[in-house]
Amino acid sequence: MTQPDFSSIRSLADVTPELMTQFSEGTFTDLIGLKYTELTADQVSAEWVVTPQQFQPAGIVNGGVYCTVIETLASVAGGVWLGERGNVVGVNNNTDFLRAVREGKLRGVATPIHRGRSQQLWVVVITDEQDRTVARGQVRLQNMYAQG
Length: 148
Fold this sequence. Notes:
Elements: H1 17-23, H2 28-32, E1 35-39, E2 44-49, H3 63-82, E3 86-97, E4 105-115, E5 119-127, E6 133-145
Antiparallel strand pairs: 1-2, 2-4, 3-6, 4-5, 5-6
């Protein structure tokens, strides 16, 4: 299989949901099956199907899966917003687990609370197929401006 040509991509602001899913191939989020559905400077959304590989011993989705998705969506969203000015790194992730899940498709949506010169704060809500909130988190990002 031929690797896609990403040479024209200068920043996350140039990336579509399909390209972001391709960028993620072979990464931790690919292991859980995360597929991006929306990618803008104001909102990033993705979904995945629950599998037994995501379970903790009690037979429900491990909280670390939610933390991963929340950190990932907030970081991608922050990077899209910052664009060619630089990159972002997560400095705090606070995730609440609200409902146990054993099966189905889950969806995460990241939206901004604050986007400033040095930091950003994003909230991410994960819902199930009945649109019930199963986890919610917020991630503080540090803006890392390009040197030059």
